[in-house]
Amino acid sequence: MSSIKIEPLNNTLQTREVLSEILVEVVANGGSVSFMHPLALEEANAFWDGSLAAAEKGERIVLGAFDGDILAGTVTLLLSLPPNQPHRAEIAKMMTRISYRGRGIAKALMQVAERLAIEQKKTLLVLDTAEEDGASALYEKLGFTLTGVIPDFALKPHGGLTGTMVYWKRLS
Question: Which of 3, 61, 65, 137 could disulfide-pair with 77, CB 3.0 to 4.6 Å?
Answer without folding.
Answer: 61
